[in-house]
Each structure stands twice: as structure tokens, then as C-alpha cells.
TrEMBL record:
Catalysed transformations (reactions): (6R)-5,10-methylenetetrahydrofolyl-(gamma-L-Glu)(n) + L-glutamate + ATP = (6R)-5,10-methylenetetrahydrofolyl-(gamma-L-Glu)(n+1) + ADP + phosphate + H(+); 7,8-dihydropteroate + L-glutamate + ATP = 7,8-dihydrofolate + ADP + phosphate + H(+); (6S)-5,6,7,8-tetrahydrofolyl-(gamma-L-Glu)(n) + L-glutamate + ATP = (6S)-5,6,7,8-tetrahydrofolyl-(gamma-L-Glu)(n+1) + ADP + phosphate + H(+); 10-formyltetrahydrofolyl-(gamma-L-Glu)(n) + L-glutamate + ATP = 10-formyltetrahydrofolyl-(gamma-L-Glu)(n+1) + ADP + phosphate + H(+)
Protein name as catalogued: Dihydrofolate synthase/folylpolyglutamate synthase
Alphabetized Pfam families for the sequence: Mur_ligase_C
Keyword Transport belongs to the record: no
Entry GO terms, CC: cytoplasm
The enzyme's E.C. designation: 6.3.2.12, 6.3.2.17
GO annotation (BP), single: folic acid biosynthetic process
SUPFAM superfamilies tied to this protein: MurD-like peptide ligases, catalytic domain, MurD-like peptide ligases, peptide-binding domain
Length: 418
């Protein structure tokens, strides 16, 4: 086991609960570390869906414009290092260990959650590297998330939908209020939700924020983006959500940081693992998506409808039991031909076979379109690939854990052949 792996195992045991929202403890340690201001410019991104895509777009465009960046996002798929990037590259194990040691020395007797500890480590690395821009993705909610200890020069909310109900509630107004907690008085704010909750609009007004709402201050008509005199065609080659890209473009235009040329070329190459990610394996096309709530499934359904295949669309799905499973499956009921519910052994949160099958039925999927058994994800993938024609498409979705399992299985298979 590497030193980094030992650290990560320790961090998982460091605090009695996985999540403890609140800024008092983490802000105290941040002050000791001197990371309250990790970069001259900070952009914080919150949202139910699309925030990772927005951060990736901001990062790519800023790098293309010659700026130095630090990007922090979560969760990761295969390696923790994915969460922290400097200059577009994952930081090394040694960098992370050094950051963890710095946080450990600074925290004293203060107890920190895994996310709080690792957030402070990322901020420490950004400050040490001297990046111009820190791009921070909120982990959960906004107002009480550890990322919010940093005052953002510009805040983005990509979308507001229902997810993580145990922590954020099941009401968009309440959820919007939590996400609007990342706004700062008088600072610019970009919202890419076409129907923002009143709580978000009110928060922007009461704080005197310089607000930019999609459909008002900037527009997105299909692939056509417009903000003032700027018009950009979003390339069809990227599968990232258009509203998230539009939010990133608006943010950089507001900050006068959008490159003067080559923007469409940068956008054409945008991709993010697990976001409508196409992967060729064993002569078959896999489509991997981490979508795990009804709003994400609705976007995925539209994407599938806009990109038809000659054959069948078959879905391998494994999801967490605490999610709205029927709501997750319903948007895809008409665009997926066959379903294979699968299990994630060893994951205590994962839904079992009975729950998955019942949710598919509740979503309107007829029994003859659902596989008779529920194998583990890796076994289900092998079976489906062997039985999938070259004109078919194999969709994998339902959670980050599901996509991670498939990516690891594919990697192990490729490594075994080399």
C-alpha cells in the first residue's frame, strides 16, 4: 500500500461521520494554513448536475488563454488524484502527501471530515503553486460546504434539482437557498438553470450580486450561445451539458478572461470521464454516464434520442438505494430497449436486485425488457458485450461507483492482454 493510500484510509476514519456540514472547524484550520485566499481569482461552482463539466470547461478555456489554474472537483472515479489538478494535470502522490501533512500539522485537535481535510489540502497545493485561478467545485449544497470557506470572485450555479434529500431536502426552493450560499455581496453570479428557484433569484437581489441568468442576460438556443455581442457555436463533438458550457463562457466573459481566439476549437475537444463518455472495448461501443438523479437521466435521455443508433440501446444500471430509483429510470424508459440491473458487491449503499427490478417496473419498463437476474457489474458487462451486436449501443449509468467499476474492469482487461 502506498503512502497516499495509507493517508486516505486514515482520513476515512478520522471523523465520526462522513458528512458534517458547517464551516467553523474547517475555517479555523484554513486560517492556520493561510489558505483562505488560495489564488488571486476564485470561481466557485455549485449545482445539482453539471458542475464538474463547468469546472472542466473553465479550466480548458483558461489554460488556452495562457492562465495558470488549480481545479478541485469530486468525487473521483479511479484515482483520488483526479480531484486536484494544477495546470490541467493531476497532482502527484507526493504532492498530496505533502499537503495532507501540512493540514495535519495545522489542525491540532480540530476534527475534520474526509472532504474538509482534502479540500484544505487542495487549497494548500493551489497556494503553493501560485496559480492565477482556483476553480472550486462544491461537494454538497453550497452554504455550509467546505469549499465555501473561500470567498469567490464569481459564483456559478449550474442547475437546481432534487438530490441528496437527506441533507438538502426535497424542495427546489430550499435546495436553491443552500446553493445560493456561495454568492458574495456585489460579486458576479452566473446561473445556468433555465427555471431558477425564487430563492436563488431573491438571494442574488438581496446581496446586490451582479447576476447573469440564462435566458435573460445570456442565451442558449440549441448549440448557439449568445452574450451581448458575443456569439459562439457549441461544437457537436462535445457531450458535456450545453448549459454548463454556457455558464463557463459567461463567467469568463464577465471576468474578461475568455481567449480572444480558438474558443470553439477548445470546446470541440472537451470531454470528461463518465459524462456521456464513449469507450470502444472488445469491438463494441460503451457509453458511460455517472448520472444518478432524475434530472441527469432526463438529460441523458435527450442525448440518446439526439444520437440514435441502428441497433438496440441496452442499459447496464447499478445505483444507490437511497436514490429515487423509479425517477432515475423513468426518463429513459422509452429510449432504452433492454435493461440489465446489476449489483455492486461490497458497497453497502447499493440497491439490491429486488429494489432495482421494482423501480424499473414503477418507471413503466415491462418485464420482458428486463434481464432475469442481477449479476455483479463486471460480470454483467462481460455478458452484455458478448451478446451485443456491432450496431447496438451499451449504456452504463446509475452512479459514480457503477462507472468506476466498469472503467476499472476495462482497464484490468486491457492490462491483462498487454
Amino acid at each position: 500500500m502506498t503512502e497516499l493510500q495509507l493517508w486516505l484510509e486514515r482520513l476515512e476514519r478520522l471523523h465520526p461521520t462522513e458528512i458534517e456540514l458547517g464551516l467553523t472547524r474547517v475555517a479555523t484550520v484554513a486560517s492556520t494554513l493561510g489558505v483562505e485566499r488560495p489564488a488571486p481569482r476564485v470561481i466557485t461552482v455549485a449545482g445539482t448536475n453539471g458542475k464538474g463539466s463547468c469546472v472542466a470547461t473553465l479550466e480548458a478555456l483558461l489554460l488556452a488563454g495562457g492562465h495558470s489554474t488549480g481545479a478541485y472537483s469530486s468525487p473521483h472515479l479511479l484515482r483520488f488524484n483526479e480531484r486536484v489538478r494544477i495546470g490541467g494535470r493531476e497532482v502527484s502522490d507526493a504532492d498530496l502527501v505533502a499537503a495532507f501533512e501540512a493540514v495535519e500539522a495545522a489542525r491540532g485537535d480540530t476534527s475534520l471530515t474526509y472532504f474538509e481535510f482534502t479540500t484544505l489540502a487542495a487549497l494548500w497545493l493551489f497556494r503553493r503553486a501560485g496559480v492565477e485561478y482556483a476553480l472550486l467545485e462544491v461537494g454538497l449544497g453550497g452554504r455550509l460546504d467546505a469549499v465555501n470557506l473561500v470567498d469567490a470572485d464569481l459564483a456559478v450555479i449550474t442547475s437546481v434539482a432534487v438530490d441528496h434529500e437527506a441533507w438538502l431536502g426535497n424542495d427546489r426552493e430550499v435546495i436553491g437557498r443552500e446553493k445560493a450560499g456561495i454568492l458574495r455581496p456585489g460579486a458576479p453570479f452566473v446561473c445556468a438553470d433555465p427555471e431558477p428557484p425564487l430563492s436563488v433569484v431573491s438571494a442574488a437581489g438581496s446581496m446586490g450580486a451582479e447576476a447573469y441568468f440564462i435566458g435573460s442576460e445570456f442565451a442558449l438556443d440549441g448549440d448557439r450561445y449568445r452574450f451581448g455581442a458575443t456569439e459562439i457555436t457549441l461544437p457537436a463533438t462535445t457531450a458535456l451539458p450545453r448549459p454548463s458550457i454556457a455558464a463557463a463562457l459567461t463567467a469568463l466573459l464577465v471576468l474578461d478572461a475568455l481567449p480572444g481566439s480558438g474558443v470553439e476549437e477548445v470546446l470541440a475537444g472537451l470531454q470528461l470521464p463518465g459524462r456521456c463518455q464513449r469507450l470502444d472495448w472488445r469491438g463494441r461501443e460503451l457509453l458511460l454516464d455517472v448520472g444518478h438523479n432524475p434530472a441527469a437521466a432526463a438529460y441523458l435521455a435527450r442525448w440518446l434520442a439526439d444520437h440514435p443508433v441502428a441497433g438496440r440501446t441496452r442499459a447496464l444500471v447499478a445505483a444507490m438505494a437511497d436514490k429515487d430509483l423509479a425517477g432515475l429510470f423513468a426518463p429513459l424508459a422509452e429510449v432504452v430497449d433492454e435493461w440489465c440491473p446489476a449489483l455492486l458487491p461490497g458497497n453497502a449503499r447499493a440497491a439490491g436486485c429486488e429494489a432495482l427490478v421494482a423501480a424499473l417496473a414503477a418507471a413503466g419498463v415491462t418485464a420482458e425488457r428486463v434481464a432475469a437476474d442481477c449479476p455483479a457489474v463486471a460480470g454483467a458487462l462481460d455478458r452484455l458485450v458478448a451478446d451485443t451486436g456491432s450496431a447496438d449501443r451499451l449504456l452504463v449509468f446509475g452512479s459514480f461507483f457503477t462507472v468506476a467499476e466498469v472503467l476499472q474492469h476495462v482497464r484490468d482487461d486491457i492490462d491483462g492482454e498487454s
